Amino acid sequence: MEKKKMRRVLVASIVGSAIEWFDYFLYGTVAALVFNQLFFVTEDPAFGTLYAFATFALAFLIRPFGGIIFSHIGDRIGRKKTLVLTLSLMGISTFLMGVLPTYQVIGIWAPILLITLRLIQGIGLGGEWGGALLLAVEYAPKEKRGLFGSVPQMGVTLGMLMGTIALSIMTLLPEGSFMTWGWRVPFLLSAMLVIFGLWIRKGIDETPSFKKNQEQGTVAKLPIADTLRYHWKEVLIAIGAKVVETAPFYIFGTFIVSYATSNLSFTETNALNAVTIGTIITTIMMPIMGALSDKIGRKPLYIGGTILMALYAFPYFWLIHQGSVAMLMLATIIGLGIIWAPITAVLGTMFSEIFSAKVRYTGISLGYQIGAALAGGTAPLVATALLIRFDNSYVPVALYIILTAVISLVAVSAVKDRKAQDLDEEEEVLQTSEAKATT
């Protein structure tokens, strides 16, 4: 019975996460192919793409606020209730995007309504990630916490994979059909996925850590205040550590679709297929890396992946500039499929191990979402702006990837690997530090 319960917990964490990221990534990919033409209409196509990516970045800026709102609910009322709210919010906003009239129909209201729905997506996702992660980590046995923590991270790439496959199929339509109605289909189908996700999560109980807080009467009255007072250093560490996990990911997975089709000679299908294959490989690699972190620790894996990311920045662009579809595939497989996998697989578990249970939802959400806002959603925007500023040279974009790696290496140097401790032991240590801070 216990094994069945654990399986349901893992399924609930990955399914909900995958659905929310599916909704979220649809926008990122469609922004590069459709929204720049149907919603952000300009005389210069490059600026239309820039505006579309700017709205992509805008949702990342709102995600920390979603993290604060829903993590407060999660630390005060419970993880489960919060996850139902976030999934519902994402599903409604994504479905409405699929029925939104274009600029040619309602003029300026088209981008305004699209941006509004995108902001709602950002608020929902801001609270989703932390809850999905804690659902897995706080149920996990000590010796399998890395593996369990990597499972909801797989939801990120599974969501991206579903979105990419859906759009790859739709791009097989004639250009006119795709631009008229084909791009809307994945947005509309997301409603069915949301209903399934809510059904899966319905049968899950609250996590042991949250139940223990309730029993001991240690539930934080104002989690954000406690987090900023006692755990501000951990929040800064999490923000910095998130940078290399998020910026290269959106360059390899989102920016490349626009870059390969606009600046190089690849078709949309070539670019989307490369991202699809890279995403499949990284999804397979994640639980392997998570299980490996249970043996050697989160920090060594994270540092190794980050160093490789910095070393790979220039070879990545050199490979895709060879003009070969095979080289584009290889470049994406190495970057997105292999090098990125250990970084993202251990990130959530590493974050959860440095925060006290009573503010864990708030702490990991703040660090993750602020880091994503600063370096994730802005990555395609920054990369596109660098291309415009430096005459389509990829050198500044490669240097930008290296910079993200350096920032994250500095941040994670302060992390103590706690794979050998259970969460209760960590709780005692962290509560003792809080008590000292109070006195």
Automatic annotation (TrEMBL):
Alphabetized Gene3D superfamilies for the sequence: MFS general substrate transporter like domains
Annotated ranges, domain Major facilitator superfamily (MFS) profile: 9-416
Pfam (any one): Sugar_tr
Intracellular or extracellular location(s): Cell membrane
InterPro entries: MFS (IPR011701), MFS_dom (IPR020846), MFS_sugar_transport-like (IPR005828), MFS_trans_sf (IPR036259), Sugar_transporter_CS (IPR005829)
PROSITE patterns: MFS (PS50850), SUGAR_TRANSPORT_1 (PS00216), SUGAR_TRANSPORT_2 (PS00217)
TM region positions: 21-40, 46-70, 82-100, 106-135, 147-169, 181-200, 235-259, 271-289, 301-319, 325-347, 368-388, 394-415
Membrane topology annotation: Multi-pass membrane protein
Keyword Transport: yes
Signal peptide boundaries: none
Keyword Magnesium: no
Domain of life from the UniProt record: Bacteria
Keywords: Cell membrane, Membrane, Transmembrane, Transmembrane helix, Transport
PANTHER family: SHIKIMATE TRANSPORTER
Protein name: MFS transporter
Lineage: Bacteria, Bacillati, Bacillota, Bacilli, Bacillales
